[in-house]
Design a protein that fits this description.
The complex is a heterotrimer of chains A (347), B (348) and C (290). Chain A is an alpha/beta fold and 347 residues long. Chain A has helices spanning 50-57, 80-89, 108-117, 124-137, 142-145, 155-169, 185-202, 213-219, 237-242, 247-255, 294-298, and strands at 5-14, 22-32, 39-43, 65-70, 73-74, 90-93, 173-177, 205-210, 222-227, 230-236, 304-307, 310-312. Chain A is globular, with a radius of gyration of 21 Å. Chain C has 290 residues and is an all-alpha fold. Chain C has a single domain, classed as MetI-like (MetI-like fold, Orthogonal Bundle), CATH 1.10.3720.10. The longest helix of chain C has 37 residues, at 75-111. The two termini of chain C are 38 Å apart. The chains are: A alpha/beta (347), B alpha/beta (348), C mainly alpha (290). Chains in contact: A-B, A-C.
């Protein structure tokens, strides 16, 4: 079945001219299914390319090579009408809760405008009703939030209004780029809970992009780990987190500050990026990898399927079958049967 | 006030904060950013002050160095550094104490490095402010190299500019500057908030090593309980300008006493098992318009009549454990929260 | 609305935190100048501004408050009559300058590309040419100078700074999250530009407008003082021209050249204060410590 949203063999390069180019994404493929709503985690640190991927999936930037498909149609070549459908089905939630509101208008503006544009209501009264309903759906009180300017609300409230916007539009996929990084700890759970509700009750898929493994573990079924623009490991979140195969994934997990003083960070030396003396044309992680050996410096490892529900790009575990980029979804575990309402057909 | 327990032998505190109050003047009245905070630290001890936005933690960090700017004002309390009150000192004496005895790594420090000065010059700047006698160039260079090595940076970093360094390196350079005169107390305000998880670990381990080498005490201000668990010995939980719970980190995490602490910990994701994520309903109070009684009571699942009229004081429930909550000392631990209460959040 | 209500509303606006002292002072001054220029001519006998109306070179007296000039004109009448045309020229220059500046700045800053490069090069090069030289050449070739024409001549060089200011703001605004969210709503680029970006530019437009008016008046006075202004109708700059032509300074006729200069100074002072106040509105961080 045609996937809802598909990134195919994407390579994204920034910067013109010969010397200053950065390869932000290299050979990235994955898709969001149109059959079952999913929550997929994209995990990486700065420089991993995850924000570039988010912008690409939202159609904000285009790939240098490769494609973005929406229901099988190439987004770069869409007509105005097709583009509008794309917008209706693929919506963002951004990191900075204040930046996404126009300071000139009340916060209602952010909710009313999409209703009018996507023609979700007929009358002004209907618009107001929908706006109030959406605000309540995320646990806020309309009397405390509507009619206010963004700077009069807290970051948490603003971000929840953005989630309310998603309730209104009801896209098929939400691309959430670090939605809770700038939110206080106690409020993160609430916002992530709203995302889970969107997924369970309205069958909306979520692509959850973050650097925080712990929140990704809590809400995602499947996870893709990025390092410097490439996928290093992917699979079901239980498998990847419990028994990571790629040395970078292992490093990420061991560096995550667990709220458990009995399990403190180890003191093993972490090789910094800057002190790399040996340049690599092979695996990008080789300079920092404690297990790097000869082939790592010269050949780029391909994604190999090590388990039914996991693949890794590392010579240490390359005995399984090689996974072509487009097949990465095969290692994703489908959501639990009883929790998976099927999505409505596209009109 | 911390009720002293006379039977327990304590090493002399290197830092002792008594009833610190910092208020902000706003058009709508006083915002009590810090309202009567007290704690003490022994040499070598690591205190983590954890709180969300608006809890007053950054205000405390600045106030400890008497760096509070208008419209904020320190209106009361004492900050005793080895017995001398920093808040009562004359300006000249205070300047001598800053950097040499008590150092601050402020929020966003790595972005505040002077972009047109080399790292070595920035380190030397601070040193020379305290030791104005001329030092031979070689000696200064050696000193800089030693400081950089202490934070795990190569000596070549000395000649570089900030933009040539990565985030983690910049923050460690900031640490080198802050510890250049071997202070007794290091205050770090969210030192790793902009850093990746792997780099964060590196920087925090570096801070720990330097601190242990100096025998200094550390006050780590932040909002990440995980970071506190990894780094701190003692944790103080801030809410709306007050300390609501203080205790050793392990005890605090496994058996929190204050309802806010408990709800905060419950809302944290972890890697051991998937569970229902529960946030704390409601919002922290605006500091100009605090509810009567306990500031947390509108959101507290245990609130009762007394909470709405009387502000609880910090009370030592166990050795080294203090809580500010009316449930104590009657109860010895938090009763279970009925599910209904959590969902409704007890908002009147 | 009753007088009481109007006063209460004015008081409320005057006490709002955005009404800083410069803004109030500038507004009050400008109000005075406007009253002088609009009401003044009705209170003063306009005939007295004509040549030969009175005896020439009379010092100020109860009959002629500001005395007369060498052509027998009442200085008071001349100056009062001449204030509004001076302001008019400034308004035309400011209006045209802002109109062009807004259009070019918006489109160049938002859509970038070749258009932006062209606009930028054009504005930057014109800024480097000495304005007075161009203006003199153009003005000297105009046969019959009127207020509107002089305003347009001056406006030719009044658009560059507003264009650059607005373009710079648009460049930073287009990167903001709410612009991206607007696109995610399916809004077309033009709509995003006018509904989301433009409203936030209002403080900058106002500040640029005041700046353009100020520059326009200054350039016009410059031209007038050189004799390239309106030939017979009074303006403040022309008064200076006549005063200089008839050696009023050497002749000790201080009552002739002082009033126009004082009024010009007041005009610029009020425009400066308004500009400073509007700048602070546009950029609340100036001048205050958070």
């Amino acid at each position: 079945m045609t996937p809802l949203l598909e990134v195919r063999n994407v390579r994204k390069v920034f910067g013109g001219g010969k010397s200053d180019t950065t390869v932000a994404l290299e050979g990235v493929s994955f898709s969001v299914s149109s059959e079952h709503p999913s929550i997929t985690g994209i995990v990486g640190e700065s420089g991993s390319g995850k924000t570039t991927l988010a912008r690409l999936m939202l159609g904000i930037i285009g790939p240098t090579h490769g494609y973005l498909f929406h229901r099988g149609r190439d987004v770069a070549a869409m007509s105005r009408r097709e583009r509008r459908e794309f917008r209706l089905e693929v919506q963002p939630i951004f990191q900075d809760p204040f930046d996404v509101f126009n300071p000139f208008y009340h916060v209602d503006h952010a909710l009313a405008v999409p209703i009018r544009h996507f023609k979700l209501a007929d009358s002004r009264r209907e618009v107001q009703r929908m706006v109030a309903e959406a605000v309540e759906a995320v646990g806020l009180r309309p009397s405390e939030t509507l009619g206010r300017y963004p700077h009069q609300l807290s970051g948490g409230q603003c971000q929840r209004i953005m989630v309310a916007r998603a309730f209104l539009i009801q896209p098929r996929v939400i691309v959430a780029d670090e939605p809770v990084s700038m939110i206080d700890a106690s409020l993160r759970a609430t916002i992530l809970g709203s995302l889970q509700r969107l997924n369970r009750e309205l069958a909306i898929s979520v692509v959850y992009i973050t650097h925080d493994l712990m929140t990704a573990y809590q809400i995602c079924e499947n996870i893709i780990v990025f390092y410097r623009g490439s996928i290093v490991e992917a699979g079901s979140v239980e498998r990847v987190i419990r028994s990571p195969k790629h040395p970078y994934t292992q490093l990420l997990i061991s560096s995550t500050p667990l709220p458990d003083p009995k399990r403190r960070w180890g003191e093993d030396a972490i090789v910094e990026e800057e002190s790399t003396r040996r340049s690599t044309s092979g695996c990008k992680f080789a300079p920092r990898c404690p297990s790097a050996h000869e082939p790592c410096w010269t050949t780029v490892p391909s994604l190999c399927r090590t388990d039914a529900d996991r693949a890794a790009a590392c010579f240490l575990c390359s005995d399984g079958p090689v996974l072509e980029n487009e097949e990465i979804n095969q290692v994703f575990a489908p959501p639990q049967a009883e929790n998976a309402p099927t999505l409505p057909e596209a009109n | 006030m911390i009720p002293a327990n006379p039977t327990v032998e304590r090493a002399p505190d290197v830092l002792r904060v008594e009833d610190l109050k910092v208020y902000y003047e706003t058009s709508k009245g006083h915002a009590k950013a810090v309202d009567g905070v007290s704690f003490s630290l022994r040499p070598g001890e690591r205190l983590g002050l954890i709180g969300e936005s608006g809890s007053g933690k950054t205000t405390i960090a600045m106030a400890l160095m008497r760096l509070t700017h208008p419209p904020g004002r320190i209106v009361g309390g004492r900050v005793l550094l080895d017995g001398r009150d920093l808040l009562a000192m004359r300006e000249r004496e205070l300047r001598r104490a800053r950097l040499k005895e008590i150092a601050l790594v402020p929020q966003g420090a790595m972005n505040s490095l002077n972009p047109v000065m080399r790292i070595s010059d920035q380190i030397i700047d601070g040193v020379m402010a305290h030791e104005p006698d001329r030092h031979p160039r070689m000696e200064l260079e050696r000193r800089v190299a030693r400081l950089l090595e202490r934070v795990g940076l190569e000596s070549s970093v000395a000649g570089r500019y900030p933009h040539e360094l990565s985030g983690g390196m910049k923050q460690r350079a900031v640490l080198a500057i802050a510890t250049s005169l071997d202070p007794k107390v290091i205050i770090a305000d969210e030192p790793t908030s902009a850093l990746d998880v792997v780099v964060q670990r590196q920087v925090m381990l570096t801070l720990g090593r330097v601190q242990e080498g100096l025998g200094a005490a550390v006050v780590l201000v932040g909002h990440d309980m995980g970071l506190m668990a990894q780094f701190a010995d003692l944790v103080g939980v801030m809410y709306a300008g007050k300390l609501v719970e203080v205790g050793p980190v392990e005890q605090l995490l496994t058996e929190p006493r204050h309802p806010y602490t408990r709800l905060l910990i419950d809302s944290l994701p972890a890697l051991d098992e998937k569970r229902e994520l529960r946030g704390i309903p409601g919002l922290p109070p605006t500091l100009v318009d605090m509810p009567a009684g306990c500031a947390f009571n509108p959101r507290c699942p245990y609130q009762h009549l007394r909470c709405r009229t009387e502000t609880p004081e910090l009370w030592e429930v166990d050795p080294h454990r203090q809580v500010a909550c009316h449930l104590y000392p009657e109860h010895s631990a938090l009763p279970a929260i009925p599910d209904k209460q959590i969902r409704e959040g007890a908002i009147p | 609305m009753s007088i009481h209500g109007v006063l209460r509303e004015i008081s409320r606006v005057a006490h709002s935190p955005r009404m800083t002292r410069p803004l109030i002072a500038g507004s009050v001054l400008m109000l005075c100048v406007l009253m002088l220029s609009l009401i003044g001519p009705h209170l003063v006998n306009q005939q007295l501004a004509l040549v030969g109306a009175r005896a020439p070179d009379l010092a100020p007296s109860s009959a002629n408050w500001f005395g007369t000039d060498s052509l027998g004109r009442s200085v008071l009448a001349f100056v009062v009559d001449g204030t509004w045309p001076t302001l008019q020229i400034g308004l035309i220059a400011g209006g045209v300058g802002i109109g062009i500046g807004l259009l070019l700045g918006l489109l160049a800053g938002y859509f970038r590309g070749v258009f932006d490069a062209t606009v930028r090069v054009l504005a930057d090069s014109l800024l480097t040419i000495p304005q007075i030289a161009i203006l003199v050449i153009i003005a000297a070739n105009v046969q019959q100078m009127t207020v509107n024409l002089l305003g347009l001549v001056v406006a030719i060089l009044a658009w560059m700074v507003p264009t650059r200011t607005i373009r710079a703001q648009v460049l930073s605004m287009r990167e903001r999250g709410y612009v991206e969210v607007a696109r995610a709503n399916g809004q077309r680029e033009i709509e995003v530009l006018f509904r989301e970006v433009l409203p936030n530019l209002i403080p900058y437009i106002a500040a640029s407008f005041v700046g353009a008016v100020s520059a326009g008046i200054l350039a016009a006075i410059g031209l007038e003082a050189l004799g390239l202004g309106l030939s017979s109708a009074p303006t403040l700059g022309t008064a200076i021209y006549w005063a200089e032509k008839y050696s009023a300074v050497l002749g000790g006729e201080w009552w002739w050249w002082t009033p126009p200069i004082v009024i010009i100074a007041v005009i610029f002072l009020s425009l400066f204060l308004l500009s400073a106040g509007l700048d602070r509105l546009a950029n609340p961080r100036i001048g205050s410590r958070a």
